[in-house]
Amino acid sequence: MPDLVIEAKGLRKVYGTGATETVALDSVTFEVQRGEFVVLLGASGSGKTTLMNQIGALEGPTSGSLKVNGVELGGMDDKERTEYRRSALGFVFQLYNLVPTLTAHENVALIAEITGEHADERADRVLVAVGLGDRANHFPSQLSGGQQQRVAVARGLVKNPPLLLCDEPTGALSVEQGVVILDLLHEATSDGERTVFLVTHNPRIAEMADRVLSLTDGKIVGDRVNADPKTPAQIFG
Ligand SMILES: Nc1ncnc2c1ncn2[C@@H]1O[C@H](COP(=O)(O)OP(=O)(O)OP(=O)(O)O)[C@@H](O)[C@H]1O
Ligand SMILES: [Mg+2]
């Protein structure tokens, strides 16, 4: 695996045309190194989810270049894109995207199965870690918003992917629950091999990052390395 995980150059994304045209990303250029815990900070509508969807190859850019692990995402065919998402990525979606007909356990186990043995045991373990050991057999509709969000996080964590993309993973949680989740996400980068890219509008969460990217109106207006990242408990304790 190359040391440079993400390399964006002049990335631009325009939605719509004419009166409804929205420039969601504009001249976005940045790099992320392997093992970094990166926070992308920006207000509502600044383009955070749009950028996340680009890195996840869920949408293509209008122009510009985006490489992950040295490979240009725009140059992939459907099969390569599917394989990229399967093997290189984990997702925690802003709107959870849980499968409504599957229980919490089944939602997590489904992802665990992609990456190896003992999917049921691994799913159980991660659900306990996010505090949902007693809700494993509930369907999404039987869970609170914060519980659904923790299932979404469990799904991202159970895959243990090289690059974990998390879109507002603690937005629906209390401070205490949020600290538990942020600790788990941070731990995912502790071996220096795995990278977490976390999107938030909460500047306090950025204090735990190795690198903080700031997005305003689709533009990167800040890119700084945090010399002394804090633990979630230090920030919110
Ligand atoms: N599919 C789409 N079609 C048209 N416009 C879009 C689409 N997706 C996003 N936009 C627009 O692009 C801009 C950036 O949206 P985006 O969802 O990336 O913001 P965000 O930073 O994730 O906001 P939030 O914090 O509210 O989730 C917004 O102005 C939004 O209205
Ligand atoms: Mg968003």
Q: Could you name the key traits of this structure?
A:
Rossmann fold; 10 strands; binds magnesium ion; alpha/beta; globular; four-stranded antiparallel sheet; binds adenosine-5'-triphosphate; six-stranded mixed sheet; 237 residues; 28% strand
Write a structural description:
With 237 residues, the protein is of the alpha/beta class. It has a single domain, classed as Rossmann fold, CATH 3.40.50.300. The protein has seven helices and ten strands. The protein has a six-stranded mixed beta sheet, sandwiched between helices. Strands 2-1-4-5 form a four-stranded antiparallel beta sheet, covered by helices on one side. The radius of gyration is 17 Å and the shape is globular. The model has no long low-confidence stretch (mean pLDDT 96). It binds adenosine-5'-triphosphate and magnesium ion (MG). Adenosine-5'-triphosphate binds next to strand 2 and helix 1.
Topology:
Elements: E1 4-15, E2 22-33, E3 37-42, H1 48-55, E4 63-68, E5 71-72, H2 78-88, E6 89-92, H3 104-112, H4 119-129, H5 145-159, E7 163-167, H6 175-187, E8 195-200, E9 211-216, E10 219-225, H7 232-236
Parallel strand pairs: 3-8, 3-9, 6-7, 7-8
Antiparallel strand pairs: 1-2, 1-4, 4-5, 9-10
Helix pairs in contact: 3-4, 3-5, 4-5
Shape: globular
- Helix-strand pattern, N to C? EEEHEEHEHHHEHEEEH
The order of strands across the largest sheet is: 6-7-8-3-9-10
C-alpha end-to-end distance = 36 Å
CATH architecture: 3-Layer(aba) Sandwich
Provide the CATH superfamily. P-loop containing nucleotide triphosphate hydrolases
Query: Strand fraction band?
Result: 25-35%
Largest sheet: 6 strands, mixed
Give the tally of β-strands: 10
The unique ligands bound to this protein are: adenosine-5'-triphosphate, magnesium ion
Nearest-integer average pLDDT:
96
For this structure, the CATH topology is Rossmann fold
Low-pLDDT runs: none
Number of distinct helices: 7
Radius of gyration from the alpha-carbon trace, in angstroms: 17 Å
CATH class annotation: Alpha Beta
Give the structural class: alpha/beta
Q: How many distinct folded domains?
A: 1
Level of helix content? 25-40%
